[in-house]
Write a structure and sequence with these properties.
The chain is α+β, with helices and mostly antiparallel strands and 275 residues long. 45% of the residues lie in helices and 20% in strands. It has 11 helices and 10 strands. Strands 5-6-7-8 form a 4-stranded antiparallel sheet. A two-stranded antiparallel ribbon has the order 1-2. A hairpin with a 5-residue loop joins β1 and β2.
Length: 275
């Protein structure tokens, strides 16, 4: 399996990404209680081999792209997913397999300066010109705590952070003063220039025939897999420490294959003692 890959991002950028390795298990364990977005940015930053300090400036779509590539490098192409039919009269459990390649969108052609063009909207008898950037990891991560208690306020805060300049008939106005129709148009433009930020799965329930869409949350899916593996590592570390009296740090530094070999020896020793 490949240990690194070069990934094309938006605005014509390209980065090199290394795989999540056994040596990263301590990081996975230590960040389990961290908010998903902050954790995703930290993991991407950790695995970028060049320009790691640029991770917070990545668009949300770029971060999703890199998380999908990290998932492929660590666990492979296919992903086994489970959803529940949203129909109140059904609730059927839907199990399906999807490939990483099915979720990756090609990066859009970038402008020479890498910036989205300003949007012009007529509303309420006035002309609004709004320069914006699509939400970056830093824009979203900075309001993560607010999002857990007030999602609407967090959405407003993210929107306002992404407005670089807004004018009404040539006069500068604040992002908070933009009419709802202008805000809707700007949000649609943000999504259009960063389509990877929200990938919708078109689903059909085989039990009741209901059709619905579901957002694929790469961070949640990938960290669930990483956390399950890290939990097994904790149990393995406990057994090895109990048997060999090694420190946790020494155990986590062992390659997974060698750790498994030592575990086999522990199980064999236990089996002999039980006879």
């Amino acid at each position: 399996m490949r240990s690194a890959v070069r990934v094309a991002l938006s605005a014509g950028r390209e980065v090199e990404l290394r795989a999540v390795e056994d040596a990263d298990e301590a990081f996975i364990l230590d960040t389990a209680a961290t908010m998903p977005g902050l954790r995703a940015t930290a993991l991407v930053e950790r695995c970028l081999t060049d320009g790691a300090d640029a991770a917070p400036a990545l668009t949300i779509g770029d971060r999703e792209t890199l998380l999908l590539h990290l998932r492929r490098l660590r666990f492979g192409e296919p992903m086994d997913c489970v959803l529940q039919c949203p129909s109140p009269s059904c609730g059927e459990r839907l199990e399906f397999r999807i490939n990483v390649a099915d979720l990756l969108l090609p990066p859009l052609d970038a402008q020479a300066d890498g910036l989205a063009p300003p949007i012009v909207v007529d509303a309420g008898g006035a002309r609004f010109t709004v320069a914006f950037h699509p939400p970056a990891a830093d824009d979203v991560d900075r309001v993560a705590a607010l999002a857990s208690t007030d999602a609407h306020a967090a959405a407003r805060a993210i929107f306002e952070r992404c407005i670089d300049r807004a004018e009404r008939d040539g006069a500068v106005v604040s992002a908070s003063d933009l009419p709802p129709s202008v805000r809707d148009a700007v949000e649609a433009a943000m999504a259009a220039v960063d389509p990877q930020s929200e990938v919708q799965l078109a689903m059909r329930c085989p039990a009741c025939g209901a059709e619905f869409s579901s957002i694929f949350d790469t961070a949640t899916f990938f960290f669930r897999e990483l956390d399950e593996r890290a939990s097994r590592t904790v149990r393995d570390a406990h057994l090895l420490a109990e048997h060999y009296h090694w420190s946790e740090a020494d155990i986590l530094r062992l390659p997974a294959r060698r750790r498994a070999q030592y575990l086999e020896l522990v199980y064999e020793a236990r089996a002999r003692r039980s006879k």
